[in-house]
Amino acid sequence: MKKLNPLLIGLSAIMLGVSPWIINAAPYESTMGLVQKIFYFHFPSAILFLVAALICGVASAIFLFGKKASADGWAIAAAELGLVFGTLTLVTGPLWARKAWGVWWVWDPRLTSSLLLWMIFCAYLLLRKYGGPGSDKLGAGMALFGMANVPFIYVSVNVWRTLHPQTSVVPTLPTDMGIPLWFCFAAFTMLFMALLNLRARLEHQRARVEALYLAEDEA
Amino acid sequence: MIASFFRVAWHVMRKDLTVEVRSKEVLLTTLFFAVSVVLVFSFAIVREGRAPDDVAAGILWVAVSFSGTLAMGRTFERERYNDTLRALLLAPADRPAIYAGKLLGLLVLLALVEIVLVPLVGLLFNAPILAFPGRLAALLALGTLGFAAVGTLFAAMLVRVRSRDTLLPVLLYPITIPVMIAGVRGTAALFQATPDLAMAQFWIGLLVFWDAIFITLALWTFEPVMTE
After folding, report:
1. Which residues make Cβ contacts (< 8 Å) with residue A160, sequence separation at least 6?
2. Nearest residue in chain A measured CA to CA from B157
3. For B57-86, what is each residue's pLDDT tens digit?
4. Distance CA B78, CA B136 (A)
5. Which A residues, 66 through 85, put their C-beta within 8 Å of a C-beta on chain B?
6. Please, what is the average pLDDT of chain A?
7. What was the ipTM of the complex prediction?
8. Residue A108, class by beta-carbon neighbours within 10 Å (0-12 exposed, 13-18 middle, 19+ buried)?
9. Which of B163, B170, B217 lies at the smallest CB-CB distance from A145?
10. For residue B116, what pLDDT band results from cuts at 50, 70 and 90?
């Protein structure tokens, strides 16, 4: 895992560096024009936002029920990344909406539930930062509830009639728009994996140092 | 197994309510707080002696959620203060049953608060609370259940955590907003000039869905979370 990180970071750096040219080369969408191009960054960050919630929830479940202390490090790493990619999603979304819908924000199910999930990440991190001892288990419980929100967000667009484009848009994209999209998606995913790896390792090392301190005190 | 679960839950609830009947601390403070919230909102939105239409549902649910948070914080604060939480957890009983008992005690208290709160909102904001009493009661019961199910779990978990008073609402509101949305929208559908029963029914169904998720998750996580 450790050796993979420089490779992932290097590749995603190159790909993200190249991505403006690739996005520029993609054709203009017929009705939305230039503003549609923000979609190439919005979609990857939104998907990784949900993936982060899933990782955080699954790692928390393993931590709570499997009694594996290391899973907590993955949970907190995923939560921090969820906040970062969620912020990206919530910034790029309104930028697009301002042009496409004429307003920055509408209270439709998908936007509302994305904002909610983002707030759940904030609350989780606030708890982990200021909760003190014992907050790891509480955080894990909280993360499980947060994960329950994810399918709700994904489905909400298709169940309720909303302004947000349907999830079926992505598989039906024409190839010359699909290639830049999946190119950006790959770059974002590699960046996500590398950051997740690094942050979890930092957390594991911190836990280890803490355990060593405690052992020193007892000796 | 099932019988012992309900017996333990019943005993925990009765213990909580006995303590409450003797002091009336949580009930009276929560009730007064709920009334204050309604008044604060009235002052914020009433113009020239009249409240705008369609605000009653929102105010009702804000008062329920704010006062509910206050009550759930207090029920576990009492256990912590008297150092009885450990004794409760040491009892040879299912942990989920203890959780269920705590939840039931809280629900009884909140039901009492709502019995005062609903007529008050109806009176002050001209809401037709008696038009569909069954559906309104179902919305309130299901919404309060979902809210209190998460709140009881979080309040129990926060007992051992620093700054628990600030963290309870911080954690609770984002998680329970789906329940709040369903409660407010369902109640608003009942209160509007031409009531939309199909809409109310839809939100009641959604509340059942969220309640099932929240209660399952809470019963499931209470045991490992409360183990030291």
Report:
1. A108, A109
2. A138
3. 999 999 999 999 999 888 888 888 887 888
4. 32
5. none
6. 84
7. 0.83
8. middle
9. B217
10. very high
Give yes or no for residue B101 having a pLDDT over 60.
Answer: yes
Residue B88 in tokens: 């409760």
Sign of the alpha-carbon dihedral angle for A65, A69, A72, A77: negative
Please judge whether A142 and B224 are an interchain contact, meaning their C-beta atoms are less than 8 angstroms apart. Answer: no
Residue of A nearest to B228 (CA): A134
Pair of tokens at residue B18: 């006995």
Q: Test B167 with A142 for CB contact under 8 angstroms.
A: no
Return phi, psi of residue A71, to 5°.
-60, -30
Please, are residues B65 and B173 in contact by the beta-carbon 8 Å criterion? yes
The DSSP call for residue B160 is: T
Residue with tokens 């790493």: A77
CB A77 within 8 A of CB A200: yes
Of A65, A116, A134, the CB nearest to B224: A65
Q: Do B171 and A123 touch (CB under 8 A)?
A: yes
Q: What is the pTM of this model?
A: 0.86
A146 and B175 within 8 Å at the Cβ level: the answer is: yes
In this prediction, residue B214 carries a pLDDT of 92
Distance CA B13, CA B106 (A): 8
Any B CB within 8 A of A155 CB: no
A134 and chain B in contact, CB less than 8 A: yes
